[in-house]
Amino acid sequence: MAAKSKAAQIRALARRHTRAAIKVLSAIMNQSDGPATARVSAAQALLDRGWGKAVQPVAGEEGGLAVIARIERVIVDPQENNDKKPGSGEANRAHT
How far apart are alpha carbons 67 and 61 in whole angstroms? Predict the structure, then answer.
């Protein structure tokens, strides 16, 4: 069997500390006199790990953003560009 990659070894080592990390996060979250930002961050980390991150809307769904996509293939001839005046935009492109 192949040896574990460095990334897999690090992931396994980190996973061994899961219980301790959750205990620390929950202790920070429950500190009523602790900084609010630390408490919120700890709570968010616990929720993300326990329930997954909140679903982000995809374009076309209610409340989603419109998708604007443009795929363009541009072939530029270096010699042609030397003959055109710079900054003219469309003049610097050969369309396919």
Answer: 11
Could you tell me the two tokens for 57?
């809307």
Out of 50-54, 65-69, 90-94, the most confident range is: 50-54
Distances (CA, A) of 34 to 19, 24, 26, 30, 56: 22, 13, 12, 8, 30
Partners of 74 in the β-ladder: 95
* Domain residue spans of the chain: 6-51
Angstrom CA distances, 39 to 27, 30, 44, 59, stand at 9, 7, 9, 33
Q: In the chain, at which residue ranges do the beta strands (DSSP E only) sit? A: 74-75, 94-95
Tell me the pLDDT tens digit for each residue of 41-59.
999 999 888 888 877 766 6
Centre a 10 Å sphere on the Cβ of residue 19 and count the other Cβ atoms it contains. Answer: 8
